[in-house]
User: What shape does this take?
Amino acid sequence: MRVLGVDPGLTRCGLGVVDGGLGRSVTCVAVDVVRTPAEAELSQRLLRIADAVEEWLDFHRPDVVAVERVFSQHNVRTVMGTAQAGGVVALCAARRDLPVAFHTPSEVKAAITGSGRADKAQVTTMVTRVLRLARKPSPADAADALALGICHLWREPMRARLAEAEARAAELARTHRARLAAAARRKRETGATS
Assistant: This one.
């Protein structure tokens, strides 16, 4: 499976493509950061991000796009920019009928380092090791994009199995309720005729 990981942001938007193999083997296909100038109009910054993401989608042909889920930060302006960039990425993927998975920063950190409270340096170090890169991806947005892709590859099989188990349990519950209702009807009908 090929994943495009995106660490959304207006000033720097990290993009990383990883391929998953058997087990937990992962390889880096490409990584980069899209930069937009702070003085540019918001619409132009979002357009630059959209254009870059569309180029990556066309060139790398991922099976899924993994985006960092916006979380509460103290700086509302930063949250808004991150959310807007993430929305543009989701829209680009939707236009190609690609699934989009959102992962929280703590999910990504836990998947990569084993701790949901890891700092950026720890995430970058583990991404470098997992992907067997000659040097650390820089800036941190690039490493975070790769981490999102790795997180999705490692977490998605478990999430899919859980969703499948939940669907089976819901179907069993529906069947059980239907049997109980049918038994109650038969009991009422039998009681009314005797």
About this structure: The radius of gyration is 22 Å. The beta strands are 2-7, 12-20, 26-35, 64-68, 100-103.
